[in-house]
Structures are given as C-alpha cells and as structure tokens.
Amino acid sequence: MSLLDIRGLTTAFQTERGEITAVEDISFSLEEGEILGIVGESGSGKSVTALTVMGLLPRPPARIVSGSVRFAGQELTGLSERQMQKVRGPGIAMIFQEPMTSLNPVFRIGEQIMETIRAHERLSTRALRDRAVQMLEKVGIPSPARRLDDYPHQLSGGQRQRVMIAMALACNPRLLIADEPTTALDVTIQAQILDLLMDLRDEFGMAIMIITHNMGVVAETADRVMVMYAGRVVEEAPVGTVFDAPLHPYTRGLLDCVPSLSAAKPRLVAIPGNLPEPARRPSGCRFRPRCGLAVPACAAAIPPLDPHGPGHRVACIRATAEVAA
Amino acid sequence: MTRPLVEAAALSKHFTLGGGGLFRRPGETLRAVDGVDLRIMEGETLGLVGESGCGKSTLGRLLIRLIEASDGQVLFDGADITGLPPAKLRSLRRAMQIIFQDPYGALNPRMAVEDIVMEPMVIHGAKPDAAARQRVAAMLELVGLPRQAALRFPHEFSGGQRQRIGIARALVLRPRFIVCDEAVSALDVSVQAQIVNLLQDLQREMGLTYLFIAHDLSVVRHISDRVAVMYLGRVVEIAPKAAIYDAPMHPYTRALIAAVPAPHPAGRAARRAARLRVEGEMPSALNLPPGCRFHTRCPHAMAVCRSVSPPLREYAPGHSTACHLHDPQHRPAATEEFAA
C-alpha cells in the first residue's frame, strides 16, 4: 500500500464567471521515504493539488468534484475539519513559499512550535519547551534556546523558513508537502534548505512532495517527477528518465528553455505563446497551441496518460512518433 | 575598441534610518552601496548578481540617477552627471531607462497600452498625434505584440506580454543604456526565455547597453558579456563571464555558483558532499563587519581579513577581485594552493 494514493482527483472553484477546474483527473501515489517532485508553471494546479491533500482549501468556493485521496489507507476527501486536524501534524505537514503564511507575527516562535505539538500530544510545559528547542536545533537555528523567545520579525527569511520547517516536523509527519519552499530565498540559503530537507528525509524516512517550477530543484532532490500543465498531469517518470529521455514536448521545452550554468547556448529555445487561463483552455491537448509537434488529432481529445516503459507515463499522442524518428 | 558609456567612481548610497522608528536607534546608517567603482562599456551587457540586500538594485538606480548618490560620481558618456540640475537631467533621461521586475506594478492599469508607451514621448515634448501613434505601433511590433494591443489595457495581458509592454515603453525614446532590474525574474520559465531572446535581439538592433541585475546566475551567464558580483554594498569580483563562472576567484563567488542547483540529477549525492558551502546568512548592512565583509561566512578567512578591507584589484586581464587570498603580500605561500 502506498503512503499516499490519489485517484482521478478533480478540484474546481466557484467563480463569478462560472466554475473553473483547477485540477483535473489526476492520479499518482507516493511511497514512504520517497521524494516526489511536482513541476509546473502558474495555473498548472500543483499548489491546488497539495492544498486538496491537506484539506486546506476553503469549501466553498473550492469543491472536490470527484476522485479519492487515500493517506495510509484512510480516505481523506470526506473528512470533517476536526478529523482532518488529526491527520495534519503527525500524518501530513506542509511548508509554504512564504513562511509568514504559517507563522503568527504576534506570538513568539517557541510558543508557536509548542502549540503545534500540544495539539497532538499531552506533554508538560517543560517537555514541550525541550522539544521545541530540539526541533530548532535540528533545523539548524543557532542558539535555539535563546531563539524560542524571538518573534518572527526578528528572524531573517532563511531562519523563518527553518522555523516553519521545525513546526511542520514537530509531530514527526510521515509526509511533508513543500510548496515552493525555496523560491523566495537566495541561492546560498536555498542550498542550505534543500540540504536540510534531504537530511531530514534520510534521518526520519519521511516522504516529501516538493512542488516547484525550478527543474534544478527537482534535479537536486526528487526520486520521481510529475509534470503538470494547465491542471493535468502530462508526464511522470523517475528523475533520471525525466532529464535523460523526456517524452512530452512540454517537459522537453521546460528543460530546453532554461539557460545552463555550464554550457553556453547561443540562443534559448523558447516555448512560444503563453500559459492558458483556466477559462480559456483549448480543446483536446492543452499544450497543443504552443506545441511544435501538434497535429489535427491533438485537438480531438485530451490525450490519456499512457505507460511508456517502467514508471513512465506520458499524455501525448505524438510522444512515440517523435521517439521513433 | 569600445569605450565606457557608464562609469561609477567611489559611488556610495547611505540611508540614514531612525528618528521615529519604534525599534531603531536614531541615526543608524545603512550602507546600501559603499564605494563602488565600475565601468559599463558601450554595447555590452554587464550582469550584476548578489543576494537580496547586497545593494544591486540601489546601484542600478544610482547609475541612472533615479536616486541621488551620497558620495562619489556617475559619468555618462564621459560627462559627470552626479550634480546635474533637474532641467539638464531631463534630456539625459531619454538616454537611460529601466525595466522593472514586476510588470503588473509598473504599468498604470487605467491607461491603454498605446498611452502607456507614448507617455515618455509626451513627457519629452512630443505631440500625441498620428506620427506618435505610428511610432508606438512600430515599437509594439518590435517587441512582438499585435497591433490591436495598442487599445487594450494591462489587465488583458499575461505576465510575459506585460513585460513586453514595459520594454516597449522603455525603448520608445531610443535610449542608449537600459537597467534591467530582475526583468525576467517574475515570469514563468517557459515565457522567460522569450523575453531573454527579445532583450538580446533588441540590443543587437538598437545597439543598447545593458546593466542586467538578477539573482538567477544561469540567466546572467546566458545574457552577459561581463559579470560583477556584489556583497554587502561592494563589488567583490568582476570579470568576463567565462572567467567568473569557470574560474571564480572570490570565495563568495565560488559559493554562489556552487549553490546553484545542477541541471541534471546524475551524481547529485557526490556533488552535495563536495560542495563549497557558506554557513549563515549575509549580515545586516546596518551593522557591517570590519575588514572584509565576507569574512564572517568565508571558509578561508585569515587574520588580516578580520581587520583590513581588501581593495578590488586586477589579478588577470579584465579579472578583478577584492580578496586577500590572492594578494601575495598577505598569503604568499598558500595563494597558489587556493588558486589551483
């Protein structure tokens, strides 16, 4: 049994201009101790996927239209907020791009970490305090006992990110969802935080779902990669396959369009056009208007996510044609 | 031989904080830019990198006099523009423009695209007539927007298209020098490449000189001829891009490059283990460390680094760095070992 198993999940939002599907018919699973990278640009549905799993979307306007989210064998989609609170913390925890989303500016960070633990475990105040110090130490905050009494604004951006990770890890979650955890950080701090996440996985065997637009972050961390575009999964494969033998034209485009730090490219291979707005998605394959390989058949139907070798799934009717060429 | 179009000489910008602030002592000085010497050659792209708060955006704004220097000089085309009175500055503004990171924030949502692009022309005395509209239309075409875009409003465009509008507005006066301040950082990666290509095409066609400020070292390598690295208000290294990336001299530059995620997963465990790491974070510009500003995080710091600030010195043709490790006077024996 997989730790997390998502089948046919569709999440929609009620808007003034009708209902918009943010995530459509996605299926994937995640094993204990595995790191899954979910890659996509704005509007791909990657964050909505994470928030659906966490049960953090306000309903309404959000609505799970169909599908199932099973965590450690338990179905999460029908749970009440009370029941969901029991899953969060020791089950699934999440960290965000902007740490101030999770940190309350008017409470000391020690109190906030202790409160998280208190919600799930009965411990004395002294034991809570010790645990908070341990957590801060674990995430690499210098002189953690002194830092407990700091307010979030007294910390730098990188330190706030560490405190948020400490809070997320305080109840030893089996799954950590990290939504763009390093996007707002400078590159040297990003490297420190990614190292920390990898160390924590190695130490606790925690599974991590890392959501990012940065292929480099995926290359550094993920075991398996899922690429999303305009609300759907377009490709999924082990990390080596994604970088060495990507099959979906969008995945290939994503790899080609970023400049390299080592090799000189005379000119970047840009993906033409723009990301479609949810209300103006094209018929058939959603990448079709920007795709150099598109044929009339691409407009007829949304391509299914078909298997192409071990652990490799691709939603493109032109994928095999291109590989044979 | 090209000549410098823009020069900074001992350029500084100090902000005085305090007086009313709840948590600040009055009279604290933030040294955002602190004694920078720099030359940007006509027709080149100089990349400027460094972490948040290093002063790179402030330096960009100083060079086009969007903000006033506290000390030092800015030369444009050989003439000192530091003390230029407002009336004279205005004509100079035609020649220097800036493209911002946030295309949303930089465009007036109530103005049609045509008026947005025409505004700088009107400010500089053009009549908003048919000829002006014609020029705007040509400009929109040049940046890859459809003609119909002229009568639409910013909210009708995607992020990449809005950045094209910002570029059209910056270029409509035919400037010579453009500061691109994180101009592609907010864009989705698939759109970012389009804008990078556009900036390169426009540079070739219009003979532009760019200061390309960005925190993304890969994009900077791609677009730049030379690269300057800033740390806490100072330029710590400047060189042709190949030298910066393939043979960086300053430990900070080395750490920055080592921290960039590799483009491929192969060998990542070994890479992680071998990576030159810097611990901690950049100190506050309010409370600068004595000596070399990087010594608090530098794995190679020596006694001299804690007391003497290293000057920016040329160690190879066109390759300068501010680091005692390369100065034979301070570390004659170990220099070669470090350089190897």
From TrEMBL, chain A:
<protein>
    <submittedName>
        <fullName>Peptide ABC transporter ATP-binding protein</fullName>
    </submittedName>
</protein>
<dbReference type="InterPro" id="IPR003439">
    <property type="entry name" value="ABC_transporter-like_ATP-bd"/>
</dbReference>
<dbReference type="Pfam" id="PF08352">
    <property type="entry name" value="oligo_HPY"/>
</dbReference>
<feature type="domain" description="ABC transporter">
    <location>
        <begin position="4"/>
        <end position="255"/>
    </location>
</feature>
<keyword id="KW-0472">Membrane</keyword>
<dbReference type="InterPro" id="IPR017871">
    <property type="entry name" value="ABC_transporter-like_CS"/>
</dbReference>
<dbReference type="InterPro" id="IPR050388">
    <property type="entry name" value="ABC_Ni/Peptide_Import"/>
</dbReference>
<dbReference type="GO" id="GO:0005524">
    <property type="term" value="F:ATP binding"/>
</dbReference>
<keyword id="KW-0813">Transport</keyword>
<keyword id="KW-1003">Cell membrane</keyword>
<keyword id="KW-0547">Nucleotide-binding</keyword>
<dbReference type="GO" id="GO:0016887">
    <property type="term" value="F:ATP hydrolysis activity"/>
</dbReference>
<dbReference type="GO" id="GO:0055085">
    <property type="term" value="P:transmembrane transport"/>
</dbReference>
<dbReference type="GO" id="GO:0005886">
    <property type="term" value="C:plasma membrane"/>
</dbReference>
<keyword id="KW-0067">ATP-binding</keyword>
<dbReference type="InterPro" id="IPR027417">
    <property type="entry name" value="P-loop_NTPase"/>
</dbReference>
<comment type="similarity">
    <text>Belongs to the ABC transporter superfamily.</text>
</comment>
<dbReference type="Pfam" id="PF00005">
    <property type="entry name" value="ABC_tran"/>
</dbReference>
<dbReference type="GO" id="GO:0015833">
    <property type="term" value="P:peptide transport"/>
</dbReference>
<dbReference type="InterPro" id="IPR003593">
    <property type="entry name" value="AAA+_ATPase"/>
</dbReference>
<dbReference type="InterPro" id="IPR013563">
    <property type="entry name" value="Oligopep_ABC_C"/>
</dbReference>
Automatic annotation (TrEMBL), chain B:
<feature type="region of interest" description="Disordered">
    <location>
        <begin position="321"/>
        <end position="340"/>
    </location>
</feature>
<dbReference type="GO" id="GO:0005524">
    <property type="term" value="F:ATP binding"/>
</dbReference>
<feature type="compositionally biased region" description="Basic and acidic residues">
    <location>
        <begin position="324"/>
        <end position="334"/>
    </location>
</feature>
<dbReference type="Pfam" id="PF08352">
    <property type="entry name" value="oligo_HPY"/>
</dbReference>
<dbReference type="GO" id="GO:0055085">
    <property type="term" value="P:transmembrane transport"/>
</dbReference>
<dbReference type="InterPro" id="IPR050319">
    <property type="entry name" value="ABC_transp_ATP-bind"/>
</dbReference>
<protein>
    <submittedName>
        <fullName>Peptide ABC transporter substrate-binding protein</fullName>
    </submittedName>
</protein>
<feature type="domain" description="ABC transporter">
    <location>
        <begin position="17"/>
        <end position="257"/>
    </location>
</feature>
<dbReference type="InterPro" id="IPR003439">
    <property type="entry name" value="ABC_transporter-like_ATP-bd"/>
</dbReference>
<dbReference type="GO" id="GO:0015833">
    <property type="term" value="P:peptide transport"/>
</dbReference>
<keyword id="KW-0813">Transport</keyword>
<keyword id="KW-0067">ATP-binding</keyword>
<keyword id="KW-0547">Nucleotide-binding</keyword>
<dbReference type="GO" id="GO:0016887">
    <property type="term" value="F:ATP hydrolysis activity"/>
</dbReference>
<dbReference type="GO" id="GO:0005886">
    <property type="term" value="C:plasma membrane"/>
</dbReference>
<dbReference type="InterPro" id="IPR013563">
    <property type="entry name" value="Oligopep_ABC_C"/>
</dbReference>
<dbReference type="Pfam" id="PF00005">
    <property type="entry name" value="ABC_tran"/>
</dbReference>
<comment type="similarity">
    <text>Belongs to the ABC transporter superfamily.</text>
</comment>
<dbReference type="InterPro" id="IPR017871">
    <property type="entry name" value="ABC_transporter-like_CS"/>
</dbReference>
<dbReference type="InterPro" id="IPR003593">
    <property type="entry name" value="AAA+_ATPase"/>
</dbReference>
<dbReference type="InterPro" id="IPR027417">
    <property type="entry name" value="P-loop_NTPase"/>
</dbReference>
